[in-house]
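Appendix B, record 7
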Amino acid sequence: MAGSPGEVVPRGATSDDGLVQGFEEDTQSFTPWGYTAPIRTTITSSLRTFGLTVWETGRTTVQSLQYRIDSADLTPTAGLTTFAETASPVPDRRAFWFVVLDGDSFQRGFYVPEGEITERSDVTHKQDEIAGFEWTITAYPDTAGNTVYHFDRVPETEAYTGS
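Structure tokens (predicted):
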């Protein structure tokens, strides 16, 4: 899912809430005096996000994302991984791949070349609950100006016959 450039590393199990693909857009409408309907609407903000809860919190890949730490700094020593959280976090943009499967069949994929975890929820450590990291990942434009690349398995639509 996310790692160093060119590296694909798994982040493990995702909660049964699945993957949430978010759309947030703002617009500005222009309505002339005396009209009740706008003559033009302009998109002023367009944001794409992905939300999920990761359950495999013990993976170094997941801890690297949660705490904005390079995975190389999470190599266990004598079976123990240690790290410190900084008081002044810096941006941590990475590439993300999200693949949606139906059994063994590929259905849909999303590639976010410039993504960052922009929201993290509280984590509950409790005996009768599984701890999870709930994230919102914001997609930023790449050098081509694209935020998300889609790979979908959609059946070909038959030609329109004029029914």
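Remarks on this record: The radius of gyration is 21 Å. The chain has one helix and six strands.
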